[in-house]
Amino acid sequence: MVGKLSGQARALRARQWFDAFTLVLAVVFISVAWPTLHLTHKVPAAAAPFIAGFAAFPVLLLRVNPLLGWAVSAGSALLIALAVPNQPGNTIPFQVVHILALFALVFAVAVRAPIRMVGVVWVATSLLFATAMAKTGDSFAEAGFGWPLAITGLVVFGLLIRWVAVSRQALLKSEEETELERARRAILEEKARIARDLHDVVAHHMSMVVVQAQTAPYRISGLSADARAEFESIGTGARAALNEIRGMLGVLRSDGQLPEHAPQPSAADVPGLLEGALRAGVPITWTVEDGLDAVPDTTGLALYRIVQESLANASRHAPGAAVRVRIACGSELTLEVDNDRSVAVRPGEPSPTSGSGIAGMQTRAAAVGGVLTAGPRPDGGFQVRAQLPVTLAPHATLAATN
């Protein structure tokens, strides 16, 4: 969105500069055409500013409506050629300023007007110059074919510029659509990964329910027949639910790994993750308060993945920068990951990654009912801050799996 607004601001400034240019151009043209009109044409002094104005002022429509500007300029040129006599020795039916303005408008029409109108303007302007210049006394071959050929070249050049501009706009639009599709696909992949992780967590607990229900008659003595039947019913229902979950989530697993063979990390594994990053050469320091063992598995999994992605982003986009991690356990779980500016001697381009970055971390946090913010710090570094609930709300789990 910021890039789009910046592009619109640049386009607005470009239009303003072009309007200022056309205004200056019109002033220059009228300043030349009016004082010199009596040298080329026999006109009353009172009519001179109007005839000079028809030669100069249509260029003001170069951006707003070049087709209308061309019609005014070409029509007035034809009237001047037919009705205004030349001074002795002048063989051109209208002023040089008028020719320059008409050429500029023809070029603008070729760049911006509908294609069918470009053909009309090309033919009409070529006929205007061929017939008007043929009355100057020069050879018809020179006057009849030279000017139309020049106009044809001008129109072709304008069409080439038009084609380049249209191609560039199409390329930018395609790149924007590709970027949006890439972001959307990354979010979907992260949601699928969250669903798989949640499946593994839930499957573990449900498996424990099945085991407890099946072994209860052997572990607890004196159970009545009704109690044994109740435990058997619990085990049967848990097994059915577990099979349904495995069936639904199986299509999301593309790594060929069975759910029961994919143990998921928890909050207690975060210190090991930080130690591994330190051994890998990341200049990292951390402060982790006690209490991670009591964090629910789903929240702990989200915490682990957010820390993992934050460290990866810091290493990728700020190589060599110091990283500080703080995890506080209270009424809610608070995570802060800060990194300084890159201290790499020669920063390289970001390495390709299959993750979804900040958007994926925000999805992780939202899946357990938490919030995550990420952005640059005033000193030039970057911070990721997440607040995750210690007690997972039921609706959060449901939203994450949908």
TrEMBL record:
Query: Which residue ranges does UniProt annotate as crossing the membrane?
Result: 20-37, 43-62, 67-86, 92-110, 117-134, 146-165
Q: Which Gene3D superfamilies match?
A: 1.20.5.1930, Histidine kinase-like ATPase, C-terminal domain (3.30.565.10)
Class of enzymatic activity (EC top level)? transferase
The question of whether Membrane is a record keyword is answered with yes
Q: Which residues form the Histidine kinase/HSP90-like ATPase domain?
A: 301-391
Return the Pfam families for the record.
Answer: HATPase_c, HisKA_3
Known catalytic reactions: ATP + protein L-histidine = ADP + protein N-phospho-L-histidine
Query: Coiled-coil intervals in this record?
Result: none
Q: Which GO terms describe its cellular component?
A: membrane
Q: Which GO terms describe its molecular function?
A: ATP binding; phosphorelay sensor kinase activity; protein dimerization activity
- Keywords (A to Z) from UniProt: ATP-binding, Kinase, Membrane, Nucleotide-binding, Phosphoprotein, Transferase, Transmembrane, Transmembrane helix, Two-component regulatory system
Every copy of the Signal transduction histidine kinase subgroup 3 dimerisation and phosphoacceptor domain together lies at 190-255
Per the UniProt record, which EC number(s) apply here? 2.7.13.3
Q: Which SUPFAM superfamilies match?
A: ATPase domain of HSP90 chaperone/DNA topoisomerase II/histidine kinase
Q: Which PANTHER family match?
A: NITRATE/NITRITE SENSOR PROTEIN NARX-RELATED, NITRATE_NITRITE SENSOR PROTEIN NARQ
The name under which this protein is listed is histidine kinase
Source organism of the structure: Nocardia yunnanensis
